[in-house]
Amino acid sequence: MQLFKRVEPKRTWLKNEIGEKLGCMLDEEKVSVRPVTLVRMRVTAKAHQLIFKELLRELCPRPVLE
């Protein structure tokens, strides 16, 4: 539920790339008149995916070839 307190109202979107993506996705899903439970499940799954990718990017940086 903490995620939706930060993402649902546009004024409280996270001020980063992930927050923007999730906020836009949530707005698009709401406009499509899907059930709120389904929308929240889809946004939560996308949030997990984006955060995990960011974690991997930080933990396993690609080596720079010289």
Strand content: under 5%
| Tally of contiguous helical segments | 3
Determine the fraction of residues in helical runs and give it as a percent range: 55-70%
Largest sheet report:
none
- How many strands appear in the DSSP assignment? 0
Ends apart, CA distance between termini:
46 Å
Detail the poorly predicted runs. Answer: none
Coarse morphology: elongated
- What's the average pLDDT? 76
Structure classification = mainly alpha
Rg of Cα set: 14 Å
Order of helices and strands: HHH
How many independent structural domains?
1
Give a verbal description of the structure.
By secondary structure, the protein is mainly α. The chain has one domain. 68% of the residues lie in helices and 0% in strands. The chain has three helices and no strands. Helix 2 packs antiparallel against helix 3. The longest helix has 24 residues. The mean pLDDT is 76.
